[in-house]
Every structure is written in structure tokens, then in C-alpha cells.
Design goal:
The chain contains 17 helices and 13 strands. The protein is an alpha/beta fold. The strands form 3 sheets. A 5-stranded parallel beta sheet has the order 5-4-3-6-7, with helices on both faces.
């Protein structure tokens, strides 16, 4: 693959993330039906798309406890340890406000407060993701969000997966609802008889979830428009081809639209990785999905120099970037655009997905050029505070009035000067 084709691939993927006219129309209709019909629409959509007959949308405490009781004890401990790692990482993102005092008795300040409510979407469908519960809920909890709601599509028996319910139990989340897709996003944004609306919606999903988040954005806050998963790997001859191939496939198995790209100067490594991908595909349970991803959105970029590798990686701005080179740490310092960077042989992408503690809700479709991983920062607000003393007003009111009149805003100027008139009338 050359740089022109790389650019073309990026354009294609961004277009895919925009959805088709048919998909967008369907999403708008779903949202309108949820706003009009409320719970009845959610129940009807669950039957239509999840084959689930629901008598109630809300998950009961008994369902959560039963799921936890039958969950594998070792996996339960693993989830608990992963949760501790994630919480420890996000604790470092806590912010305090500040206050700047001035000699004239005035001060300016910033107050940091958590949003009041958040709706966290957890995908279902071809796979259930307990890790997404941890990754969405924990930063919201660390931020201090009071009400946290989890939405996830039910299976044909009308239940959420044991893993999702167990993860929620570990974190003390009791408000969970059985709804997926665009209809779940609409319910979180606008509410129904059973579900109170929230202030912000986070979490990844399919194209219908992404389009729904785009539609409700503005009526409610969202984290990002997440597209299909991506991985890029920079590797040299010190890397093992079977390990590189395994890491490429770790993202390819997510979705036929997922992207897996190898960036290397080594033609020999490129050939070995290509062979390993074919070999390992044969035994993957999700081989059909992974094969479609590799065929349609997989690539090997053969660069002429180290500088070209770095340029290509920054142009991709991938969701996940692994660096498996002899100078991986040094090279990582030259990467400006990536959702998450994994340095060295033992930092395989799934380490970040599940256990290291960093958040796996990451920007896709090259939006890492200007956006970041989900974090505590997504669940807080920063309020500016101004307290002007009389002395500060006396020192600056003429300046402020002049600036207001410069912009043709006479009422602004008079608002500041009005204090002077009152002072003079009282003297």
C-alpha cells in the first residue's frame, strides 16, 4: 500500500461512519417513535430485532444477583481486579477548581462539578462486553456522577448477559434497562415512562447507535461518534510475525468493517505476517468476521524510512497503535495522533482493552487528531466564577465600557457604568 491508497482508505472509512441515507432515515424514525410511544416502542423493537418478549424493561435486583451467583468465581475475581486497575488509573484524572485572588479584592475562579446523570451504552449482538461496563461506569463514578444508567440489548430470552450484569453488580449499578440500538439512545436522550432522561450518553455501538448519538447530540451531550474498531502496528525485524498477526486479528474479529494495518520497513516481516494472518484465521471462532475485515480494510504499508512510518501512523491517527520496534519507547514520543499507544512486545492491545487500567473507549476514524479516550473529564463541567470588588470596578469600568462600545454594544457599556450613576445619586 502506498500513501495515496492509505489516504483513500481513510476517506472510505470516514464515509462509512456517516452511514447511508437509508440508515439515517431508519434512525430518525426510530427516535421519533420512541419519543412518541415511549416504553411501548422499546418493547416492540426488542421483539423485532432481539426476538425478546419483554414484560419489563428494567433489570431487577434479583436478575443481577442471580447472574452474579452463577458467574465463574475466577472470572469474577478477574473482573474485580480489572475494575481496581481502571479505577486507580482514572483517580489520577480528578480535577480541583482554583481561585486567583487579586490585590484589589476581586477574584476569578473555576469550579469543577460532575454532571448529574449519565447513560452508558453497552453493546450486545454478536458479543457481550462486561469490560465496556467497567470502562464507562468507573470514570463516571470517579467524577462523582450521581445517577448512572446502563442500557444494553437483551438476548432472545429477554435477559442481559451474566457478564454485563456481574460487572454492574461489582460497581454497585442497579439501574439497568433491556434495550439496544438507536432506540436505547433515544430513550436515554428523551426519556420514556420508565426511564428518566440523562445529561450525557457514552459508550460504543454499531452504526445505528452511532447515528442515533449524532442525531440526539445537542439535546443531550455525547462522548464521541465511535466507528468500527481500528489497529495499526509499527513493527521492524525484531518483532515476531505470529505475534503481530495475532494482534491484527484481535481487532479484525470485532466487525467486518474493522481496520487492521501493519506499518513496516521490512518486506520480509510483511510477507511473514501476511502468511501468519491466513494461518491463524483458519482456527478463529469469528473467522468469517475477521476475514472480511482483513480482506476489505486490512493493509500492509511498506515504508522506505523510519520517518515515513511515523508520518503514516500520524496520518492514520488510529484508535489503537502498537509499536513493536527496537526503539519503541523513543518512537512513541514522535506519535502525535493515536487513541492509545501500546509500547513494546508485551503491550498487546487486549492488555488495554481489559486490564491495564486505561480506558478502551477511544476515538476512531482519525478523530484522534483532535479527541481523546473516555475519561473523568467527560463527566465533569467547569464553571467560571467572577467576583469584582468595588475597587476593581472603579479601576476598570471605563476600560470595559470603551471595549463594549468598540463592538457597538451600548447596553453592555451602560450595564457597567450604571453602578457609577447609582453611586453618584447616593452621594
Amino acid at each position: 500500500m502506498n500513501i495515496q491508497r492509505l489516504s483513500s482508505e481513510l476517506s472510505i472509512r470516514r464515509k462509512l461512519a456517516d452511514g447511508t441515507a437509508t440508515q439515517l432515515k431508519a434512525v430518525k424514525e426510530i427516535i421519533q417513535q420512541v419519543r412518541t410511544e415511549g416504553d411501548a416502542a422499546l418493547v416492540r423493537f426488542a421483539k423485532k430485532w432481539d426476538q425478546a418478549e419483554l414484560s419489563s424493561l428494567r433489570v431487577t435486583k434479583e436478575e443481577i444477583q442471580e447472574a452474579t451467583d452463577r458467574f465463574d468465581p475466577q472470572l469474577l475475581e478477574d473482573l474485580k481486579e480489572a475494575a481496581q486497575n481502571i479505577r486507580s488509573y482514572h483517580e489520577g484524572q480528578k480535577q480541583q477548581g482554583y481561585r486567583h485572588e487579586r490585590a484589589d479584592g476581586s477574584y476569578v475562579a473555576q469550579r469543577v462539578t460532575a454532571i448529574e446523570s449519565a447513560g452508558l451504552y453497552v453493546p450486545g449482538g454478536t458479543a457481550a462486553y462486561p469490560s465496556s461496563v467497567l470502562m464507562n461506569v468507573i470514570p463516571a463514578q470517579v467524577a462523582g456522577v450521581e445517577r448512572i444508567v446502563v442500557m444494553s440489548p437483551p438476548d432472545a430470552d429477554g435477559k442481559l448477559s451474566d457478564g454485563v450484569l456481574t460487572a454492574a453488580h461489582i460497581l454497585g449499578i442497579e439501574e439497568l434497562y433491556k434495550s439496544g440500538g438507536a432506540q436505547a439512545i433515544a430513550a436515554l436522550a428523551y426519556g420514556t415512562e420508565s426511564i428518566e432522561p440523562v445529561d450525557k450518553i457514552t459508550g460504543p455501538g454499531n452504526i445505528f447507535v452511532a447515528l442515533a448519538k449524532r442525531e440526539v447530540n445537542g439535546d443531550v451531550a455525547i462522548d464521541m461518534i465511535a466507528g468500527p474498531s481500528e489497529i495499526a502496528i509499527i513493527a521492524d525485524d525484531t518483532a515476531y510475525a505470529d505475534e503481530v498477526a495475532a494482534d491484527l486479528l484481535s481487532q479484525a474479529e470485532h466487525d467486518p468493517l474493522a481496520s487492521a494495518v501493519l506499518l513496516t520497513e521490512s518486506r520480509a516481516l510483511a510477507e511473514k505476517v501476511k502468511a501468519q494472518v491466513s494461518k491463524q484465521l483458519a482456527s478463529l471462532p469469528r473467522a468469517k468476521i475477521a476475514a472480511a475485515s482483513i480482506r476489505d480494510h486490512g493493509a500492509i504499508y511498506l515504508a522506505d524510512s523510519r520517518a515515513e512510518l511515523i508520518k503514516a501512523a500520524n496520518q492514520l491517527a488510529p484508535e489503537h497503535l502498537e509499536i513493536m520496534t527496537s526503539d519503541a519507547e523513543e518512537m512513541s514520543e514522535e506519535i502525535r495522533h493515536a487513541g492509545a499507544i501500546f509500547i513494546g512486545r508485551y503491550s498487546s492491545e487486549p492488555v488495554g482493552d481489559y486490564f491495564a487500567g486505561t480506558n478502551h473507549v477511544l476515538p476512531t476514524n482519525s478523530t484522534a487528531r483532535f479527541s481523546s479516550a473516555l475519561s473523568v473529564y467527560d463527566f465533569i463541567k467547569r464553571t467560571s466564577i467572577v467576583h469584582y470588588s468595588e475597587q476593581a470596578w472603579r479601576n476598570n469600568q471605563e476600560k470595559i465600557a470603551r471595549l463594549a462600545r468598540l463592538e457597538g454594544l451600548e447596553a453592555h457599556a451602560r450595564a457597567v457604568e450604571s453602578r457609577a450613576w447609582k453611586k453618584e445619586s447616593q452621594s
